[in-house]
Design a protein that fits this description.
single chain; about 425 residues; alpha+beta
Amino acid sequence: MTRLKHEQLNAIKKKMGVEKLWSFSKVSTFDQCSWLYKLKYIDKIRVKGDNCYTYWGTIAHDLIQGYYQGKYKYDQMSDNLESKILEYQLIEDDSLKFPSESEWENYIANLRHYFSNVKPLPYAVSNEKPVLAVFQGKEKYVFQGYIDSEFIIEDGSLVILDYKTSSISGFSGAKLFEKSLQLIIYAMGINQHGRIIEKGGELQKFPLEKIKIRYDMMKYVNVSFIQKNGKEKVTKAERRYWVGKMANQIRKDLEGVGKEIEAIEKKVKSLEKKYNAKTRTEDEKIEIQAEIDKLQSEKEDLKRHDFDILEINEKIEEAIRSNDLSNMPDFVKDKYTVSDCYIDVDLTTEVVKEFEAKLISTLDKIIEKENEVDHDEAFERGRIDQGDSFYCNNLCDMKDHCKIYKEYKEHNAMFIEKDNAPNDDELLKMLGL
C-alpha cells in the first residue's frame, strides 16, 4: 500500500483535533538521545542518505513484501537480491560501507540464504497498511505508522509481522519488550479502531488477545532435533553458518554409530543365548531368529556409516562449507529440521498497561522540554560513553551536526595523540642526544 499523502495526514489531524501526528521513530529518537531529538525535530536539520543497515534493511523489506504483493515470483527474489548486490558494490559512498569486509560478507550470506529458503506464509498477506493509535497524557497524542505485513491466521487472530535484519541478541527477555514498543503501539491502534481486512470489507474489531506480534528474524533459522531423552531442542543460528553451529551435535551423531553397533551386537548375543536354550520351542525360535535378522540388518546398514575420525572430520568440514547436510547419512539428515526464525511477543493486558504508562510519561516529558524557552538546556545530554559509541559512530545520521559527537571525537583523538607520543628514550634519540 502506498504511503499517505500530505493532504490525507492533514485530514487525520483535523479529524482527531491535534496539531501534529507522532511516530514511533520520534519517541525512539528521544529515548536514544535527547540531543538527537532536538537536532531532528526542534532544529529540523535534514540529512540525506542511509547507513549500511538501513540501506539493506529497506532492500530486504522490499524484496519479501514485493513477493507477497505479486510483483515477482519466488525464485526472482534471489535474482533481484543479486542485482542489488552488484549495484551496491558500484556505489562510492563511505556512509553505506559496513564496518568491516567480513561483516558485509556475513550479512549478505545470511540474506542470500533467506531469499533462497524462506517458506512463504500460507495466508493472504497485506503490506504497509497505515494504522492510528491514540493516547491521552498532558495532551492528546495521535500516532500514525505503517505495519510491515499483517494477516489472519486459522484461529481468527490478526498477526502483525515485522521484518528484522538486525542481530537477534536484543530480542529476548526484558530487551524483547523494549524492542516491541513500536508494534505494541500498532496493536493498540488496531484494538482501538478495528481493521478492514479485505478491500471493500467490513470493519472488524480485534480484542488484544486476538492480536499477535511477531518478528521475522531474517538472518536466522530455527534448528530443531530430538535429544536422547526424547525431548525436542530448538537452537537459533545464523543462516550462513547453521551447520557450523550444529557441528558438535552432528559429530556426536556420527561418532555414536560405533556405540550403536556395539549395542546391537550385545542384543544379538543375548538373543542367540535365548535361541539355543534347551527349553525353547520351534515357534519361539522362529520369533527370536526374526528379531536377530532384523538387528543384523540394522547393523549392516549402520556399518556403512561407521566412519573413522578422519572421515568424520572431512564430512563435517564439507557440510559446513556447503551449509547443508546433503553429504550426510539419512539418519543425520532426517534428525534436523531447519525453519524460518520467528519470535512472538505475548501481548497481555499487563504488558499493554505497563507500556502505555511508560509511553505517556515519555511523551509528557518531551512536551515539557519542547515548551522550555532554552531548548539547548532542556535537551542537553551527557558525554558519549562506551554504550553509545557504536550507535554514534555507525548509525547516527546527525553526527556531522552534533556538538557532543564532535567533543567525543576530539577527546578520543587526544588520547590517540598521547599514545603516539615518543617516550623519553625515543625523544632523546630523535634529538641525537
